[in-house]
Amino acid sequence: MKRREFIAKGIVSSLAFTIVPRVVLGGNGFLAPSDRINLGFIGVGKQSYTLMNGLNRCKEIASLAACDVDRNKLAAFIAATTKKQTELSKAQVEIKAYHHYRELLGRKDIDAVVIATPDHWHAQIAVDAAKAGKDIYCEKPLALTIAEGRAMVDATRKYKRVFQTGSMQRSSYNFRQAAELVLNGYIGKIKEINVSVGEPVKQCDLPSMPAPDYLDWDMWVGPSPYRGYNPILSPPLEDDKWAWWRGYRDFGGGYITDWGAHMFDIVQWALGMDESGPVHFNPPKEANSNTGLSFSYANGVKVNHVQWGVHNAIQFIGEKGKIEVSREFIRSNPENLANLKLTSADRRLYYSDNHYQDWVDAIKKRSKPICDVEIGHRTSSVCNAINIAYELQKDLKWNPHKEQFDNDYANLMRSRPYRGEWDFRKF
């Protein structure tokens, strides 16, 4: 054997005995620190428990921090997260509580954050998280305004972060199957799509009440115009109802951006419009109408916001058939389409059956996940444009490339004023 070959084989042999996989060194169910994704949660209301339970089932995840302006909710979430990590046989780690999210973002050992605040906080926190070098999982709808969504995309790209939007229906069989059937023409050319979700956003008319001492109400309002506390906006921990901040302007976008961000997202996916959007919005002209708007794409496909018989569901109507889909069902006419196995010749969409693990895998690969920030922005732009059209009661043309309307008033509504020193554009 030549001397060079002898040395090379000796090195390989020695490495085989001295390199131990880091997963072994982690012990107690946790990966070693260098393989682990340390997570911080920002906003720990009702939805955060679903996110925490799902993410902690990913072996790479360690939840280390949580932040909220409600002390009671924060303490309860930390206790539940500690219990969950124990149940999953993960190593015991201290989960530290924070009142201000920027303190959490300042921790160098936090790799990624989950943003589950009310919608009016999404943009500011996401931009700050990107600047701090954190990867991001942000609940849907991505943004409260069109301008905020674009800023979130730009900040994510500038700081090279991995961003998953919480439009988890893309990781569901029903919706992926429906979208692929539509995309591949199994019901022929699409003539019309009906989407049944609830009403648009409205002005907040709730009476102001004294804020409880466990809640920092001024910080809860944050960048939005100030208004007094009401428990409907931020229910106490013991109230199991969903908070209804999402129904009111300055905090949410009504059901249009709540369930609409799920259902219109699948329409965008099925039509191959993830990098684009509609070109016309046509609202009903009757005052206070909360249904009946339609929008259309450049290819002529028309989408109706209408109650077609099933709540929170989509009806795709093609020249050769029909597909109806919700979280509970997928059905078709002809009947055999619903569970048809697609062929190798068919176009296939990004496959994910676990929205959380998909984000984790994308972080490890430094790739785009199934619902990247641009996709989330395009969907929330559709939802926000619908709300604008309903409010103005005007037909609007939309340029999805320039992200501009043909109406000056509508263009002003693409953004909103921020209170105090908050500014989502500083990145």
Automatic annotation (TrEMBL):
Domain Gfo/Idh/MocA-like oxidoreductase N-terminal positions: 37-166
Domain Gfo/Idh/MocA-like oxidoreductase bacterial type C-terminal: 203-423
SUPFAM superfamilies: Glyceraldehyde-3-phosphate dehydrogenase-like, C-terminal domain, NAD(P)-binding Rossmann-fold domains
InterPro entries membership: Gfo/Idh/MocA-like_OxRdtase_N, Gfo/Idh/MocA_oxidrdct_glycsds, Gfo/Idh/MocA_OxRdtase_bact_C, NAD(P)-bd_dom_sf
One Pfam short name: GFO_IDH_MocA
A single GO molecular function term of this UniProt record: nucleotide binding
UniProt-recorded name of the protein: Oxidoreductase
